[in-house]
Amino acid sequence: MKHYGWLLLAALWAAGCGAPVDEAAEGEPAALRIAVIPKGTTHEFWRSVEAGARKAEQESGGRIRVFWKGPLREDDRDQQIQVVEQFMAQRVAGIVLAPLDSQALVRPVATARKAGIPTVIIDSGLQSDQLVSFVATDNFKGGEMAGTYLAELMGGKGQAILLRYAVGSASTEQREAGFLNALQAWPEIRLISSDQYAGPTRETAYQASQNLLHRFGREVEGIFCVNENSTIGMTKALREIGRAAGQVKLVGFDAGSQSIKDLKNGDVQGLIVQDPLRMGYEGVKTLVRYLDGGVVDERIDTGVTLVTESNLEDPDVRPLLYPPLERYLP
Fold first, then answer.
1. Is 328 contained in some domain?
2. In which element (H, E) is residue 225 found?
3. Among the four residues 23, 137, 226, 265, which has the most C-beta atoms within 10 Å?
4. What is the DSSP letter of 41?
């Protein structure tokens, strides 16, 4: 009997973990409960996405409640699926999801749709026709911008490296494809490595960068890293072999505090920057519009910008580098 009791308690905990359920005060309409599920919860990028979601929540005047939960690591597909299932069990009104994998999250999203819980996809694509809308950067365009700028920095010739992120991540795969497409216009630039992956953390990116530079450190002249962690890991590895500060031209993607610092001191020559705060905001607003019976766009482009030392202080660039997180996050 005691054993059964513990099992029951465990089952109740599992069903309830993730986010508390709101109950409306008597006579008041219940708030729309919106689950926002990022790829991970440790990177600065996702704090900006959460700030955007909280901004939409604040502007609703109590009409919506945002519940934020995601896997700790950006390679934990199973945990992200579990989070989706938890919110489904809690009968949230809808889900805003940044899928870790373009295929692994297809079934959970389809199951949610059948249960009457619509999903807006943000940041990274999903190979599904069951989503309400896709709110994201044009990552292919961002990759092309990186390729063109790196080629110009290299004077149109030399040897380059592409450091990828992870198999199945649609956003970074699009960046990689855009970069490779842009380099076709520069036949004198030769890719000496394009099949290595940085992985989900700064440490895995640093290790991958060390391995690459052990092989190609003295011959490489330009590098493109497709996300924040890979950029930071590669910058650190270049410093260690004495080839930072512009000796190797480095273009990265995303703008965390360390990447901005590296750009200012000349170790990084360019960053392709998204607008994650807008992404979180538009994701929630689009879902609420759909739940209200409104018309929503299938694809919403949240913009992409090339940031260099020369435009760091531009008034239209600064909000992308220093989003006002304190306004929206506790």
1. no
2. strand 222-225
3. 226
4. S
Q: How far separated are the first and last CA of the chain, in Å rounded?
A: 43
pLDDT at 87 over 70: yes
Range of the domain at 209: 139-273
Q: Calculate the alpha carbon distances from 119 to 60, 112, 115, 279, 308 in Å.
A: 19, 8, 11, 15, 36
Query: pLDDT tens digits, residue range 210-242?
Result: 999 999 999 999 999 999 999 999 999 999 999
* Count of the separate structural domains present in the chain: 2
What six digits make up the tokens of 286?
């689009």
Q: Which residues of 273-292 are buried (b: 16+ CB within 10 A; e: fewer)?
A: bbbbbbbbbbbbbbbbbbbe
Looking up residue 67, the CATH number of its domain turns out to be 3.40.50.2300
Averaged pLDDT for residues 45-61 = 97
User: Which of 77, 66, 70, 68 minimizes the C-alpha distance to 34?
Assistant: 66
- Tell whether 233 and 290 lie within a shared domain: no
Domain assignment present for residue 4? The answer is no
Same-domain pairing of 170 and 108: no
Same domain, 80 and 123: yes
Contact predicate 197/166, CB 8 Å: yes
Q: Per-residue pLDDT tens for 6-28?
A: 333 333 333 334 334 444 545 55
Note the pTM of the prediction, 2 decimals.
0.88
